Amino acid sequence: MRLRSSILCALVAALALTATSATASAAPRESLLPLAGSSAERVRISDKVAAAKYAQWHEASRWGAVGGTGSPIDDPAREQVVLDFAAKRSAELGIDPVRSVALFRDQIEASKIVQRGLFAFWDAHPGQVPTERPDLPTEVRPVIDRVNGELLDELAATGHARTSPRCEPGLRLANAIAGRQWHLDRLHRAALHVALGSACVR
Hints:
Protein name: Chorismate mutase
Number of strands: 0
Organism: Amycolatopsis minnesotensis
Low-confidence stretches: 1-27, 62-70
InterPro entries: Chorismate_II_sf, CM_dom_sf, CM_II_prokaryot
Number of helices: 8
Domain Chorismate mutase: 11-119
CATH topology: Chorismate Mutase Domain, subunit A
Distance between the termini: 61 Å
CATH superfamily: Chorismate mutase
Oligomer: single chain
CATH class: Mainly Alpha
Largest sheet: none
Signal peptide: 1-26
CATH architecture: Up-down Bundle
Mean pLDDT: 84
Helix content: over 70%
Shape: globular
């Protein structure tokens, strides 16, 4: 009887701990660091996007097959896929799709800032061009898609923090910390600043 009682007590305690953990994970976050961290990761992934596009552009140019937008960086079709995902997922999470789409436009522009910066550097320093060519559909975009999902989860969790008068100073601090954690240089820090331009609700 005592053994059965002990087992029952242990189960109750385990369930209580699980419930507490679930409540804590679902609770609104005051810190904007996870949001900044996910944005910093996305900015970093732009290096691989740039490497893939740079190789594709030069190969197409060599064969006279350059077309589309006339730019190796702009990809309107892919950008629309990202924005449509942000709007659809926002509705599922109960957050404002308009604000989410605005933030993802900033994320896309931040990626382009990195890509343009790296293209210019590689044009000036051909010896620094990456020797490995990442595959966009199979290697790079799945990572971006994962980070995009994390960004939307963070938007849902930080609604209170992003509408607070303290949002902007808090975001600057979070950006500074994330920049150090991800070892961002000046180009990538500038991109991170742009990436979260719509994070605070003014």
